[in-house]
Design brief:
This protein has 223 residues and is of the alpha/beta class. The chain folds into two domains: 7-144, Response regulator (Rossmann fold), CATH 3.40.50; 152-221, Winged helix-like DNA-binding domain superfamily/Winged helix DNA-binding domain (Arc Repressor Mutant, subunit A), CATH 1.10.10. The protein contains eleven helices and five strands. It has helices spanning 16-27, 41-51, 67-76, 99-104, 117-128, 137-147, 155-162, 166-176, 181-188, 192-206, 211-221, and strands at 7-12, 32-38, 55-59, 86-91, 109-112. The longest helix has 15 residues, at 192-206. It is globular, with a radius of gyration of 17 Å. The mean pLDDT is 84. One of its GO terms (biological process) is regulation of DNA-templated transcription. InterPro entries: CheY-like_superfamily, NreC/VraR/RcsB-like_REC, Sig_transdc_resp-reg_C-effctor, Sig_transdc_resp-reg_receiver, Tscrpt_reg_LuxR_C, WalR-like.
Length: 223
């Protein structure tokens, strides 16, 4: 998250009631502000380019241009990733067929629309801070379900993993398991700053745009 007093969020959903409800919940938090809303993926991309929010809270299933299309376009235009906006995907389904593709495209995590207020606001804060949103049980279940049918890692992906140092590989395994930076620091008995540096290097070396994407890659190699 960029240095700011508040977390700015762009809410992208085709249903007006859902957009209004999510915006009301998020705006009620002292540390979160809704910078804007959009009603489909194309308008969401344009709003992201204009507003540069910390987090895009975006539905994966929308008419005309869905969340998967938007992710690809956001990536193509260099709008998402470390130091830029991060994407938290919303889904009505606990096993949506697009989840694996969206994570591979750079989404930072998933949240069910049936999630509690606390889960919603917590996931937005975690995403803005660059932490994995894999730790909630529901997200873990979604990802695990899709990984059972995920393709084997490519030779290029394996080569990138081999380029990691032993400590970077240790950090990636803990990211795979859903640990936060603070939990990794405690487990490895190192400083939080050191963990952040290792995570940044892991993302750069593997070509991943988010911790969630790195975790999916790691789980395909180290189940």
């Amino acid at each position: 998250m960029r240095v700011s007093e508040q977390i700015s969020v762009l809410v992208v959903d085709d249903e007006p009631v859902i957009r209004a409800g999510l915006s009301a919940i998020l705006d009620s938090q002292a540390d979160i502000t809704v910078a804007g809303t959009a009603d489909d993926g194309e308008n969401g991309v344009e709003a992201c380019a204009r507003l540069r929010p910390d987090v895009l809270l975006m539905d994966i299933r929308m008419p005309r241009r869905n969340g998967l299309w938007a992710l690809a376009e956001l990536e193509r235009r260099g709008l998402i990733g470390p130091g830029r906006s991060r994407v938290l995907m919303l889904t009505t389904f606990d096993l949506d067929e697009y989840v694996d593709d969206a994570l591979a495209a750079g989404a930072s995590g998933f949240l069910l629309k049936s999630s509690s207020y606390e889960e919603l606001t917590g996931a937005v804060r975690a995403t803005a801070a660059g932490h994995s949103t894999l730790s909630p049980a529901v997200t873990h279940r979604i990802i695990q379900g899709h990984l059972r049918g995920r393709r084997r890692p490519s030779d290029q992906e394996l080569a990138r993993l081999r380029d990691l140092t032993e400590r970077e590989a240790d950090v990636l395994r803990l990211v795979r398991d859903g640990l936060s930076n603070a939990e990794i620091a405690h487990r490895l008995v190192v400083s939080l700053h050191t963990v952040k540096t290792h995570v940044s290097r892991v993302l750069t070396k593997t070509g991943c745009q988010s911790r969630a994407q790195a975790a999916v890659l790691a789980r395909s190699v180290w189940p």
